[in-house]
Write a structure and sequence with these properties.
Length: about 180
């Protein structure tokens, strides 16, 4: 059972849900009379995008793109890989990219570039969490759930080596307990 490795609840489910409803209200105002093309970056975006879109009262479409910069572990490897996205039709559309967390910003820089090349009319970013401490590229993020300190977090879609995405809140990890468990 998952237990020991979870250190403390950083952001409760209640706070997350309340904040997501607020972000959706901002989107409802900003995109009034427009249609939104949500593009979620899987896998981390799923709980956030799921909750967000259900508070959006405009016409919207949902698609996904797969990108990763972490090869497991807690440090970004610096190179971002994005799966081919030939099937995405976003020409002339108002896109909102939905991400779980922004760290260096490289993932979003790359995904934004790809979507612009594919003819998006406008691109904004919605992220559940923002960790500005490690930012290496300058990107503008319009919708931020919570800004957090420079610590590794899991839950509400965020993983450590593909696990813990199902924790219904955002938590910090006890890295010593984790090392014991995985015997690094
Ligand atoms: P960036 O390209 O450095 O901005 O990295 C963003 C990606 O790194 C996110 O999509 C996450 O998958 C991952 N990431 C960054 N910080 C964390 C964290 O604290 N916990 C889990 N994943 C993280
Ligand atoms: Mg991710």
């Amino acid at each position: 059972m998952m237990k020991n490795e979870i250190e403390r609840v950083l952001i409760s489910k209640r706070r997350i849900n309340r904040r997501i409803a607020k972000l959706a209200n901002m989107i409802n105002k900003d995109y009034e009379n427009k249609e939104i093309a949500f593009i979620g970056i899987i896998k981390g975006c799923i709980p956030f995008l799921n909750e967000l879109m259900m508070h959006v009262n405009l016409y919207c479409t949902v698609d996904y793109i797969r990108a990763s910069s972490f090869n497991g572990g807690t440090e970004s490897c610096g190179t971002v890989s994005v799966d081919p996205v030939d099937s995405l039709n976003i020409k002339g559309k108002d896109v909102i990219i939905v991400e779980d967390i922004i760290d260096s910003g490289k993932t979003l820089e790359k995904v934004s570039k790809i979507l612009l090349e594919k003819g998006a009319k406008s691109i904004q970013i919605a992220t559940l969490l923002d960790k500005p401490a490690h930012r290496t590229v300058d990107i503008k993020v319009k919708y931020v759930g919570f800004e957090i300190e420079d610590e590794f977090v899991i839950g509400f879609g965020l993983d450590y080596e593909e696990k813990y995405r199902n924790i219904p809140y955002v938590a910090t990890m006890n890295l010593d307990k984790l090392k014991e468990k995985t015997k690094w």
